[in-house]
Amino acid sequence: MPLLTSEHIDYIVNDLSSRGIVLEGFQEEVLDHLCTLVEKEMAGGKRFIDAYHHALKRFGYTRGLQQTQKQVLITDTQTTRLMFKNYFKIALRNLTKHRFYSLVNIAGLATGVASCLIISLFILNELSYDTQHVNRDRLYRVNFRIKFGNLDYDMAVTPPALAAAVLQDYPEVESVARIRLQGNYLVKRDKENFKEKNVAYADSSFFKVFTIPFLHGNPSKALTEPNTIVVSRKIADKYFPNENPIGQTLTFFNNWNNKIVGVMEDFPDNSQFHFEILVSMLNSEESKNNMWLSNNFHTYVLLKKGTDAKGLEKKFFAMREKYVGPQVREFLGAENTPEKLAADGSKFDFWLMPITDVHLRAKTMIEVEPASDIVYIYLFGAIALFILVIACINFMNLSTARSANRAKEVGVRKVLGSLRSHLVRQFLLESVLISVMAFLLALGLAFVFLPTFNDLSGKHLHIPVADPDFLFLFMGLSLFVGALAGIYPSFFLSAFKPVNVLKGKLALGMKSGLIRSGLVVFQFTISIFLIVGTITINRQLTYIQEKKIGFNKDQVIIIREAHAMGDQLESFKNEMLKNSHILSATISGSLPVAGTDRNNSTYWPMGKEPNQENMVGMQGFYVDYDYIKTLGMEIKDGRDFSRDFISDSTGIIINEAAAQAFNIAADPIGKKIETFAFAGGSNSIEKDKRNVYTVVGVVKNFHFESLRDNITPLGMFLSKSTGLISFRLASKNVNDVISALEKKWKQMAPTQPFEYTFLDDDFSSMYASEQRLGKIFAIFAGLAIIIACLGLFALSAFTAEQRTKEIGIRKVLGATVTSIVLLLSKEFGKLIIIAFVIAAPLSWLAVKWWLQSYSYKTEVGALVYLLAGISAFLVAWLTMGYQSIKAAASNPVNSLRSE
User: Fold this and answer.
1) What whole-number distance in Å separates Cα of residue 85 and Cα of residue 481?
2) How far lies 153's CA from each of 145, 166, 297, 718, in Å?
3) What angle do CA 57, 59, 61 make, to 5 degrees?
4) Is 58 exposed, middle or buried (0-12, 13-18, 19+ CB in 10 A)?
5) Of 556, 599, 534, 414, which Cα lies nearest the Cα of 784?
6) Which residues pair with residue 716 across a beta bridge?
7) CA–CA separation, 132 vs 126, rounded Å?
């Protein structure tokens, strides 16, 4: 029975390490011989410490020896401390000795963690929208769902009378607030007008429902009087720098004076609101309207504590029957009873959406601001997880692949009495050390690349290094990832049987590493999956940009807020048409891009009473005589509006979708349609009056909404709308035209701001989220592939290193470089092919799922999947090929001379 226990051996190893004696290679024999001498001394009656010191003297290692007469063994605490000190030193030695593999491990893991950190910051920001409100858990938006005939909408807007009805009829509601979006306003200041964005009417209860910090003024009294406004910090600093603006006046373009009664803090980035000026709702005549079939107001309710939102939502059926039902039957016919509507599948429903769901889960029309999609959170979360898993797999693969280099060390230490648990702790410590280094490097990389990510994503993310919770979590994750990534290698290495190791029976190479092979397959399955995703997103974006959309969006410049020109707008248009570089111009209220006026009303064939079967929901564009010509649309039937026909003032040009909806596609010209008349231009319907329009032309379908949606019925009406003026340019020298436009604008309206955009840019902006997604997805997919190839590069280098003698023998026997390269590459090549077979069907399902949100989508054929597989194979082969060629081209004499 050996006299030395594992604790004795660990003490010896630690002590030798502290003296600078490195036990590697042949020096393991020193340890073996030293332990034998110590056992002989102990057999002679000496205690362990004296026996160990005596054995050291015989070896000549006397420096620093302190003789002790204490006849006691070291304590467990000392042993543990010394053991971990030794583990740390061995870990550092291994890192510095194998610099290449250490660099691959640390760089790969750092890149993965940095990517994961940046994506996590993005996801947390998206999930944090509207969480700043104190009462967010009982704050809801009321949405409206209508399904009647061909009308089928979920809208974020409701009737103006809804707020009062909800507050009156349902005691569960504590408070209600409405918003009526107004878009941009011109503010007069010092003989000049400034365009201010994000202006809205708001109820005084808005500041009770939402948590909005005030810098000046009393939020409980704000907007309780007409002609009062609350402005943001940004607006206050712009017009009244370094002073309290309470009581000051801002004059809107139409000489409407508004007194400032409050200054609110700017809305945070993670808010669905970014209003700069809130105007008292008391100034809105529309807000007093009792018309329940008109929807223009965003309505928010604050429920009392303990209220069941779903239960309250069910009670809204009674409110619908009390208010909406009578107006439906009054204007659409008494036969529209609740029973008939239910039988026909019609709906006029109000439902509640939690305020914190609006940003990611809203699928409704007419949002306050463009919403995101929870799908993107799932996508980016998956990418972050994939990248981190790939980086961890690299570490596990390299650690197990390099097991042969550590096998003898493990075997000797086990023979000398080291327990498996000690070896596990040592290898885990090495793993954690690499992880901590990688996490610290990752933090630096994240700081460097976060500004670029912010530019791509449109965010203002930052790393909260001053937050103790973040630091604690970050370091905790570094330890967790290190332990997680090191669990398998540590148990794998420590499980070697010393007899097999010391006899040289340890199996090497890829064939013995089934788990390692499986991990390589998993890595490249993810890589191929991400390549397919990147190609699909880019193909869809290209499809959107290149698809024939029914109008010519190129070479069209738009000047918004054209009403600022006043009565001179038509003169401005005619003056600019004298410029030889301008082909045509149009003044309108709407354009086939987001951010312009939309007016959705119901129409039916003249002479028939409106009902579910014949009513058609149709968008209305208000245009002039030159609209269709300027935008390059194509008339299919009939003609364009003409100044030669006075009757065109009641004419309408519809699109093909509208002709189909009215069942007049075969012979549309001259057909008459009608709609409700509105009293005095307001939203109050005059029951006994109708507006009648005659179809003078049918324009070919064009996309005026996102390609996610089908083309719906649309009608164009002659109007004096003055919101936008658009010019089609003939010249490529756009800058000269812009200069001419600005010069003439300043001559005719010197106090008005001149701002312009291009129609193709505005069209592209409708797909900004997809463009950002495509760029970010491509970047992180590329990183995942690079990390995977980094691990494959190191793995193939190690495999080539282990087969050096085999390569030398094959070359001596006449093998060519090509045959050796193929030999070294084929095992990895098989794994890539297996990965492709697994990734292809998974990618197909993911692509099908993502594209289903588009009504118009690109075709993703088998070629895309094949291209992704070939790309992954080529990248992997190039990664392996360098090491393979390097090994195959080496001189066999160098590898065989030691035999």
Assistant:
1) 22
2) 6, 22, 15, 27
3) 65
4) exposed
5) 534
6) 621, 653
7) 13
Paired sense of beta strands 756-758 and 651-655, if any: unpaired
Q: Which amino acid is at 415?
A: V
| CA–CA gap between residue 367 and residue 626 (Å, rounded) | 31
Q: Is-contact 626 577, C-beta < 8 A?
A: no
pTM, 2 dp: 0.78
Please report the sign of the dihedral spanned by the C-alpha atoms of residue 270, residue 272, residue 274, residue 279.
negative
Residue 760 burial (CB count, 10 A):
15
Written as six digits, the tokens of 183 are 């878009």
Three-state DSSP class for 272? coil
CB 227 within 8 A of CB 283: yes
Question: Could you count the other beta carbons within 10 Å of the beta carbon of residue 738?
Answer: 16
173 pairs with which residues across the strands? Answer: 303
Q: What is the dihedral of CA 781, 783, 784, 790, to 10 degrees?
A: 150
Find, among 431, 426, 394, the residue nearest to 413 by Cα. Answer: 426
Burial 396-415 (b: 16+ CB within 10 A, else e): bbbbbbbbbebbbbbbbbbb
Provide Rg for the chain, Cα atoms.
38
Contact 629, 640 (CB under 8 A): yes
Residue type, 214: F
- Distance separating alpha carbons of residues 639 and 699, to the nearest angstrom: 9
Across 221-255, where does the E strand assignment appear?
Answer: 228-232, 249-252
User: Rounded to an integer, what distance in angstroms lies between the CA atom of residue 257 and that of residue 384?
Assistant: 52
The answer for residues whose C-beta is within 8 angstroms of residue 830's C-beta and 6 or more apart is: none
The token pair that represents 790 in the structure block: 């980094």
Backbone angles phi, psi at 713, to 5 degrees: -55, 140
| Helix 76-97 and helix 420-457, axial crossing angle in degrees, nearest 10 | 50
Task: Identify the residue whose tokens are 């004298």.
Answer: 578
Q: Residue 546 region, left (φ>0) first, then alpha (ψ -120 to 50), else beta?
A: alpha
Q: Which two tokens stand for residue 361?
A: 């889960």
Secondary structure (H, E, C), 28-83? HHHHHHHHHHHHHHHHCCCCHHHHHHHHHHHHCCCCCCCCCCCCCCCCHHHHHHHH
DSSP labels for 325-350?
HHHHHHHH-TT--HHHHHHTT-EEEE
Mean pLDDT of each 10-residue bin along the chain, 899 residues long: 70 71 54 76 78 73 39 45 69 76 81 89 92 94 83 86 92 94 82 84 94 93 93 93 91 86 93 93 88 88 93 88 81 70 76 92 83 84 84 72 64 67 76 86 92 86 88 87 76 68 53 66 84 84 80 90 83 91 91 79 82 82 93 93 90 93 90 75 59 93 83 90 88 84 88 86 80 80 78 68 72 75 75 88 88 81 85 77 68 60
Distance of CA 583 to the CA centre of its chain: 41
Rounded CA-CA distance 143/353 in Å is 7
- The DSSP bridge pattern shows strands 556-560 and 672-678 to be unpaired
Q: CB neighbours (10 Å) of residue 36? A: 11
Amino acid, single-letter form, for residue 386:
F
Contact in structure between 775 and 607 (CB atoms under 8 Å): no
